[in-house]
Amino acid sequence: MSKSFVIRASAMIGAAVLLLAGCAPAPERPGEGGTGEQFCARMVTNSGGLNDRSFNDASWKGLQQAATDFGIGVDVLVSTSETDLAPNVQQAVYTGCGFVLTVGYELAPATADQAQKNPGIDFAIVDEVVDAPNVKPIVFDTAQAAYLAGYLAAGVSQTGKVATFGGGNQPPVTLFMDGFVDGVAKYNEVHGTAVVALGWDKATQDGVFTGDFEDINKGLTTAQGFIDQGADVILPVAGQVGEGAARAALDSKGKALVIWVDSDGYDVLSAEFRPILLTSVLKNTGDAVVEIVKSSIDGTFTNSQYVGTLANGGVDIAAFHDLANRVSPELSAEIDQLRADIISGTLSVISPNTPR
To answer: Does residue 352 form part of some domain?
Structure first.
């Protein structure tokens, strides 16, 4: 930050805000003399960047939809490394916008810090919990949807082996993996089979991780290892790394299929991968973001957690698309019944990391 900027910021913070971001003056919410057009919002990605075909991308689409729906100004600050995180959140605050959205656990410390320093700004964070009066966590009970995916994988598997791996041993990741292996176990219970789920031990909360969410080659190598062991359906929970798993499945020439996460892989991945995409475990991040931005605009914002579930449409599995013929009507009906049972509470999907 330049010396001249510091001087201007200390003398006239409103002018500095305009100079830095080109945003409208600190917005007034409706009911305080302002209108929707005066409100603006900013988003900060995690170090995976914007085009991750995962939660950064989905969150940004939600903020763009809010811009369309409510006539507000939005922009995104893209982080490409860990050193970008705190400065980007600070810069988002300096724009003077009334709402700041951060994405991922990496941004929790910076979000908490800026929220404490700026109590007049509403913050939301995706896939992480920050306990502050002006921060709304946006979390998802992905175990519920991953349970359906695990049941599906076991039902489709021809080798009796399926697999999952993560980018890191973190609650938003292992929540998927818990649900997946439990779904496989449920299929075995119902059908008297012995399908094996490689890559994750729910009891010990330990398994296979690539150590990051960006290196596609690690995903390819990890998935190829599972394919070599006989796994024919793989669930990567690793952001961009998952594309490597999709590549390994495609290169296997029919030996393996992939289940994507967060967004519908059929829509966000290259069309070349469509033949190996069985389904996706969805988080409806976009709709949640739109709803929360609206609450910030109209003054009803609270810090209570938004928890996406099967019941409220926050999570689910995607259509089977090109592989619908691999899913028998009987298996599809069983999955529909499981979904209904989870929604009604007849069936509980429990993980140590279930959002509370």
So the answer is: no
